[in-house]
Design goal:
By secondary structure, the protein is an alpha+beta fold. 23% of the residues lie in helices and 33% in strands.
Length: 436
């Protein structure tokens, strides 16, 4: 009787624990991308021109997310190269349905191969609202061996009732089915069958003397008491029943669905697209992160190889957009409904932002100052073994045409508040400013 009571208490404890985990868990909202290391986010893929066609939809409504992705030349050595990728999104569960994906205009039903370093790619995804709520949705590209590299997210409000959602499709045999409910009953029945079998097997052993009596028997050299003839019979019976269930379920599946297509494993080539202008050559001179001032300070040399004057307007890194509000062409790139979290109020401060003339080489000292560096957890590079940063500098022609330039290199932490680099005259060395 005591053994039965103890076994019952163990079963009750397991049941309570299971219900606590499954029913008491709170839904995840955002922002999982912040757990990724700064070198991973800053030196792999740079997302820009991200748009969401709608931020308020009803259950069953379609909406689209588009973006451009630049593959950094300074790709970290510690993560896998983008030789095999998959176009995806990041959301708090299956709150939306991914209807279609495209990369450079090619359908993304399968993985792509050979994503080239130093190239820009066009990302496009159409989704359908599924579960009502307010969800944080990100574009993402999953790299084989490295995981998903996430772009900026926006809050999408899905209104309506989940019971109104359906996803009808027509199969190759002409049958129309609803993917939202198709096969649900069959899956539930088989889960129940296996759960009953597993619970019975577990209960059989829980009703037996558990750890301490078996340990005493082992110490006494009575291993023969551990396994009874009944145990062998029950074990063999469970094995036979499991084997029969597998064979029967397989037979039922092939009989009910005679026309079957296996999962496809082919990886597709990415079509080539015209690249945006990249007519600025950048050489990094020095980069520091002012820890108390929450400021990234960068000094670099830029050469204009185009035939028109260019003005520095934006620095983007890890989806954060530091924009010089004194440059109208850069400000015009900020959509009014773009998530404010990704456009730091500190903006970009430049010491000398006169147009860079064709053929001219100039040293720029810029500041990207904002608490967003801390909020996005992008400052752990100050203690990282891979203390490097990366991003894109955007230069603009007078008509708004944008030129991309990658910038990357080592970065040093500074644990004293120094004057803004952009306020220091251009003929003063940055190292001298650090000594103040």
């Amino acid at each position: 009787m005591t053994e039965f009571r103890n076994s019952a208490l163990v079963c009750l404890a397991l049941l309570v624990g299971f219900l606590t985990v499954t029913l008491g868990a709170l839904p995840v909202q955002a922002h999982g991308e912040r757990v990724q290391e700064p070198f991973f986010r800053m030196r792999s893929l740079q997302w820009f021109d991200v748009t969401w066609s709608q931020t308020k939809v009803n259950v069953g409504d379609e909406w689209k997310m588009t973006a451009k992705v630049y593959v950094m030349k300074d790709w970290p050595d510690s993560i896998s190269r983008p030789d095999t990728i998959y176009v995806t999104l990041v959301s708090p569960g299956p709150v939306v349905v991914k209807k279609s994906t495209y990369l450079n205009g090619a359908p993304g039903r399968q993985s792509f191969k050979n994503m080239e370093i130093g190239k820009v790619y066009d990302y496009e995804m159409t989704m359908i609202g599924r579960i009502p709520g307010r969800w944080h949705i990100h574009p993402a590209i999953a790299v084989y061996g490295a995981g998903p590299i996430v772009g900026p997210g926006a809050w999408i409000e899905v209104a309506g009732s989940h019971s109104d959602f359906s996803l009808p499709i027509t199969t190759m045999t002409g049958e129309t089915i609803d993917l939202e409910t198709y096969g649900f009953l069959n899956v539930g029945i088989w889960h129940l069958i296996w759960a009953v079998l597993a619970a019975g097997w577990l209960l059989f052993w829980l009703l037996r003397p558990l750890l301490l009596p078996r340990l005493i028997a082992l110490q006494a050299g009575r291993e023969d008491l551990l396994i009874r003839r009944t145990d062998v019979i029950v074990g063999a019976s469970v094995f036979v029943v499991s084997l029969v269930l597998v064979v029967v379920s397989f037979y039922m599946g092939v009989t009910a669905h005679p026309n079957r297509t296996p999962l496809q494993i082919t990886t597709n080539e990415i079509p080539q697209r015209d690249q945006p202008p990249m007519d600025v050559d950048i050489t990094l001179k020095r980069a520091t992160y002012d820890v108390p001032g929450r400021a990234m300070r960068i000094s670099f040399e830029a050469t204009n190889t185009s035939s028109t004057p260019l003005t520095l307007g934006e620095f983007t890194s890890s989806s954060l957009r530091f924009v010089d509000m004194q440059v109208p062409q850069a400000v015009a790139q900020i959509s009014p409904d773009y998530p404010k979290d990704w456009v730091p109020q500190g903006g970009l401060k430049v010491d000398n932002n006169a147009p860079l003339l064709p053929g001219e080489t100039r040293t720029y000292n810029v500041d990207a100052i904002d608490v967003a560096w801390e909020l996005e957890r992008l400052t752990s590079f100050v203690t990282d073994v891979d203390a490097r940063f990366g991003g894109l500098m955007f230069f603009y022609e007078s008509d708004g045409t944008r030129h991309l330039a990658e910038i990357a290199g080592p970065i040093l932490p500074v644990f004293q508040n120094i004057p803004p680099v952009a306020s220091i005259p251009a003929n003063v060395e940055l190292a001298a400013a650090d000594q103040q």
